[in-house]
Amino acid sequence: MPSPLDLVLDPSGDVILVLSSHKDTPPESPSTDTVMAEQSDGHDDAESIGSAAEPHSEALNSIEETEEMEVKVSSRHLALSSRVFRVMFDGGFQEGVPREGHRLRRVPLPEDEINAMLVLLYIVHGLSRQVPRKIDLPKLIDIAIVIEKYALHQVAEVYTDIWFHELYESRSIPTLNSDLPEWIFLCWVLRRPTEFYYCTRAAIFRCGPRFEDRGLPFSIPVANRIELARLSTIQKLLDYLNKLIDCYSGSRKQCVSHKACDATVLGDLIQNLKAEGLYPVPDHATIDLPIETLWSTLGARRFTSLCHARPPTPPSATPYARAPKPNADPKCTIDSHFSNYLALLKLETLGLDLEEFPSANARPAHHPEALRWAHNSRYDW
Ligand SMILES: [Zn+2]
After folding, report:
1. Nearest Cα to 115, choosing from 223, 212, 7?
2. Rounded distance from Cα 23 to ligand 1 centre (Å)
3. How far is the CA of 244 from the centre of ligand 1 (A)?
4. Domain residue ranges in the chain
5. For 94, how many CA atoms within 13 A lie in the half-sphere containing its CB?
6. pLDDT in tens, 299-356
7. pLDDT tens digits for 170-202?
8. Torsion of CA 133, 69, 34, 81, to 10 degrees
9. What CA dihedral angle connects 163, 169, 173 and 174, to 10 degrees?
């Protein structure tokens, strides 16, 4: 087994973080002018930190063969940047206690993604030249997971704002839709109310009976809220269908031109709904189609009436008058009413408000104007 590698972010540091790398996640190689290889200040425990003066480009290049990596850091920097680390080092936890006979504290962090942790440690220690300016979505997700776990929101905010903005602005709609759980997670951790609203609204329309969070460490009930919002919209649609059926099967006549017109409308409506599996009108919980699919198939349905098939003769007509042309949109058809209702329901279905989903140590998310903008944004869903 290869010997552990050392990375010195603070030569006067008093903590060694032991990071674990996985074979499929080699760390990125920083430039050779990395400052971590500076000489120790003479106060370090050389046995604990190993060869701190080793060139780090070599060290990082060989990380693929290494399971653990020791990084010398400053507990003060960490404690100032994160209340989690503050508790860890100042709160008397085991991690805060130096090994007997050694000044350096050794803190294993085996569960944290090593590359994400390294980027955040560079930020915490002010080593901005080591912080990548561009980052891809999976890497930003890894970083966001560490940020949320250690409450590093504020210290990383300048960088995460830049990364997020660039990725979000350059996204394509199909990509965004396929990565909705990831985007929602990012928007929640990085406190992006407008984008959170938009992405959760898209999820409400696009997800099936379950919103898959893909194992992302949400500590908020976002999946549950998306599912509830989806069911609520479906319930409104089913209520509307029931009202339509009641309306055309009741004693009050809807069409004054043909006695049998209401029955035609009702029969046609039932036939259309049956073709979509919506008659008898089911319980909302049994519908596993995404709202978007439901809207699309129902929106494509065309409804007819007797007045549509046999336009009524105007009262002034004589036997010599020409027969009226079939009316393309007689008042008694439900076509336009139906499509208008679908459009209205779509407008009334809102995304989630980030303010209701707090995140540790993150900035406030209350931006009502931003939410209004999101709802009226150019994106359809
Ligand atoms: Zn009619």
Report:
1. 7
2. 71
3. 15
4. 5-170, 232-313+322-348
5. 3
6. 999 998 888 888 776 655 555 555 555 554 556 789 889 999 999 999 999 999 999 9
7. 988 777 778 999 999 999 999 999 999 999 999
8. 60
9. -40
| Tokens at 222, concatenated | 């976002």
CA 249 – CA 265 distance, rounded (Å): 10
Query: Which CATH entry fits the domain spanning 5-170: 3.30.710.10, 3.40.50.720, 3.40.50.1370, 3.40.50.2300?
Result: 3.30.710.10
How many Å lie between the centroid of ligand 1 and the Cα of residue 278?
A: 24
Nearest CA-CA partner of 107 in 128, 121, 123: 121
- Please give the distance, rounded to the nearest whole angstrom, from the Cα atom of residue 19 to the centre of ligand 1: 75
The closest of 13, 7, 6 to 76, measured between CA atoms, is 13
Q: What is the whole-number distance in angstroms between the Cα of residue 280 and the centre of ligand 1?
A: 24
312 Cα to the center of ligand 1, angstroms:
8
Q: How much distance in Å is there from the Cα of 260 to the middle of ligand 1?
A: 8
How far is the centre of ligand 1, averaged over its atoms, from the C-alpha of 261 (Å)? 5
